[in-house]
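Consider this record:
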Amino acid sequence: MTTTPQAISTSAVQGSLLRLSERQEVAIYLREGAGWVADFHDGRATLHSVSEWHGSGSGRMLVHAQRRDAVETISPLPDEVVQRIESLHRRMEEPTVGPFVQNSLAALAVCLRRWSARLGLVTG
């Protein structure tokens, strides 16, 4: 049994890739016991929980596409797609702090230092 990071991530994601057109593919898969959908469209990728994706109407759109026989292929997830999916999950898990929050925190730190200095709580 191999335990390389690639082997672990490949086995942790199980699902199918639906090719809707040259420009759009949808991966529906299980990862750590939860259902996910990765939508790859025109070079962009979005990640959704299954319920969020279905609730947005995309799930119903896919069902209608299948009925019209508009799904070109359905295949197991290729390793390259699994790597893209894992990358999406890593980005989703990273904390994002925008410039407004960074500037606000910096201003708050300055105010706290000044306030502490005035009260004599900080020396130097």
About this structure: Strands lie at 13-19, 24-31, 34-41, 44-49, 73-76. The CA atoms of residues 16 and 112 lie 53 Å apart. Residues 6-10 have pLDDT under 50 and may be disordered. Residues 5-93 form one domain.
